[in-house]
Amino acid sequence: MSKYKIGLFGFGCVGQGLYKTLSENDTDAEIVKVCVKRKEKERSIDTDKITYDATEILNNENINIIVELIDDATAALEIVRAALKKGKAVVSANKKMVAENLDELIELQKQHNTPLLYEGAVCGSIPIIRNLEDYYSSEHIEEIKGIFNGSSNYILTKLFQEGKSYEEALHEAQVNGFAETDPTLDVGGFDPKFKLSIILQHAFGLRQHPEKIFNWGIQNITERDIAFAKERNLKIKLLAKANFDGKVLSTLVAPHFIDEHNPLYHVENEFNCVLINGKYANNQTMIGKGAGSLPTGLAVLSDVIALTQDYTYRYKSTDFTSGDSQTAEVYLSFNGIDDIDKNAFRSISESYTGSDHGYIIGKINLGTLQQLLNGSDRVNAIFTSGNQTEIEIPNMTYSYAN
Ligand SMILES: NC(=O)C1=CN([C@@H]2O[C@H](COP(=O)(O)OP(=O)(O)OC[C@H]3O[C@@H](n4cnc5c(N)ncnc54)[C@H](OP(=O)(O)O)[C@@H]3O)[C@@H](O)[C@H]2O)C=CC1
Ligand SMILES: N[C@@H](CC=O)C(=O)O
């Protein structure tokens, strides 16, 4: 008889990954009930284990761990709230739910002296949260950035390496179980910003609501943008970035041009990469699968095991001011010159206008850029500051920030 009885919510990509990884390991935890939504769906597990009624798990006093792995952030919050209030330890992989409600979730954990862990919510199989909490607790992290979305990276890889269409590549990401049920969260850069928001808490003790983080994704990328990058031996990667100097925090999620000297250049498919730059250890790199059934199932299982060892997050708290009104250098491509206002740029280093498309490379305020991009599918922005070195390209010079 195992000591830890799990009530599992969700039996999709990640739920099944947890089920398999748990069944292949000798642990003191077992899944006793699984709550799902659709009665018509065939299941690969014993029907006795299945329920469609959340209260059957939440009111079951034998169940001491709730694992929440559903694709609905609103319903997930209800489940997690109810579980914590009942004193049940919780594991979740829902980054939207965690990032948007972290203040309340921290408070609930304190009030009810009950832990919530969410390693699987951030960069799949990369053990980033636990490392930030424990290993890096004495490091003075100055910058943390990387590729935090497996689906977008998978799509970009297929566009660059195999010349696939955007639609085909997105479809593959969905079939492989990497994409969110609403893939706008992936390709629009929302999912990596939820992850960045969670990371800020554990890297710096900073609570920055995702709403306050600039995000632009790969949803408007064109074949011309890919050709532009390829001609210059660059790749495009969707990056999430945070800098903190002890007072001012700057954050950003956006596609960037990067060159072959950047470790992120070589991170392909659904792999994620986290680059940490700190005072003592300087640069460190963590690479691993950022999405998928078994990699994420393993991260969730690792949290379950951690709960059996009474592990909790510490939630340090640091004061800061937001420095997010910064100017960035971007390549802005457009279908027609009427789609953009050149005066929006503070300075322009290069521009091209053809009969049916064009681009501008220049410095622009992020708020202004957001207004230019909002609601338009005829304009795309790619940031030029993703490299760690300065590179010279015929016709133009990019200065890349560290
Ligand atoms: N896929 C991935 O690689 C990763 C996903 N995540 C996160 O993990 C979570 C789950 O994702 P994933 O497994 O891919 O999603 P899936 O769409 O594959 O599965 C979702 C599951 O949730 C169930 N469900 C939905 N609403 C409810 C509800 N109200 N009550 C009970 N069950 C419900 C569905 O039921 P039914 O089977 O009846 O449809 C289904 O079993 C999400 O938060 C996602 O962001 C995190 C990291 C990686
Ligand atoms: N949709 C997410 C899944 C993991 O978090 C991604 O593609 O990274």
Automatic annotation (TrEMBL):
Top-rank lineage group of the source organism: Bacteria
Transmembrane feature ranges: none
GO biological process terms, semicolon-separated: methionine biosynthetic process; threonine biosynthetic process
Catalytic activity: L-homoserine + NADP(+) = L-aspartate 4-semialdehyde + NADPH + H(+)
EC number of this enzyme: 1.1.1.3
Keywords in alphabetical order: Amino-acid biosynthesis, Methionine biosynthesis, NADP, Oxidoreductase, Threonine biosynthesis
All copies of domain Homoserine dehydrogenase catalytic, residue ranges: 127-305
InterPro entries: Asp/hSer_DH_NAD-bd, HDH_cat, HDH_CS, NAD(P)-bd_dom_sf
Domain Aspartate/homoserine dehydrogenase NAD-binding residues, every copy: 10-119
Uppermost EC category: oxidoreductase
Family (UniProt): Belongs to the homoserine dehydrogenase family.
Name the record gives this protein: Homoserine dehydrogenase
